[in-house]
Amino acid sequence: MTNKKRIKFLKCSFLTLIAIGLLLIHFFVPRLISEIRNPVVGLIKRNKNVKVELAENNSNSLKRKELSIKSFDGIRISARLTYSSLDSTKTTIILLHGIRSSKEHFIDLSSLLSKNGFNSVALDLRAHGKSEGQFCTFGVNEKKDIQYVIDYLSEKENINHIGIWGQSLGGAVALQAMGYDKRIEFGIIESTFTDFKIIVNDYFDLHAGFSFSPFSNYLANRAGSIAEFNANDAKPIKYCETINQPILIVHGNNDKRINIKYGKANFSKIKSSKKEFVEIKSANHLNVWQVGGEEYFNKVLKFINNQNNIQLKI
Question: Rounded to two decimals, what is the model's pTM?
Fold first, then answer.
């Protein structure tokens, strides 16, 4: 091969690689963000369900009920209702997991809540667990799912006093739901972000070692386009401005995935006069429950009970 042909071959190869790279960036990479059921995405290590002993393991004796709730766009949301084990029920708490997790994460927590007189409804967010759907929309559609879950609980189960407890993605959904549906009477929000586009940029920096916001914004917008949601509306901090319900914002100060500054920013925008920020020292994104331990759960139980003006039962 002559030098001229070799140079031509190298140029063609280089341009081909650029074209392939651009196609991957446009069509495939955004799916890694929002497409939960993508088979390639499925190979990514899922969030671990951290085992925390919250209560005596008597979950088999609890009364539970599996629910399938049709949402606004026809997607069915899978949920598990765990009833209070006391003679009376104080309130009902919707439990929302993090990305690529499921409602099974809340088996022990639902047992603790039942022991203390609360119903709980653990959801598989859309595209997660046994719920239908292909894409996560980071709260844009999920907040509407919560509205339909509340409608169902009111109409089918005669349940009307409802709070919400969300972690990470679930916390972002919970903030948006609290601003969207005022029937939610209180919230516990753990380790969540302020803005979908900002956290996409942060995750790109975390995993790639650098960030460039015009590029990450492009990926976020493409992810929204593919999943048919407006990336600019996936902004929990915007909904914080309309939250006047009692609320706990919780964050670990060693969280490398979602910096504690975002929890503080959300907190600063919340209009409620009954709000508290709980900083879990030395906790990262996944071990708030472990590090916080019994002291943390007692604090949360006290907060929930205060919303009902009842005596704490431990």
Answer: 0.90
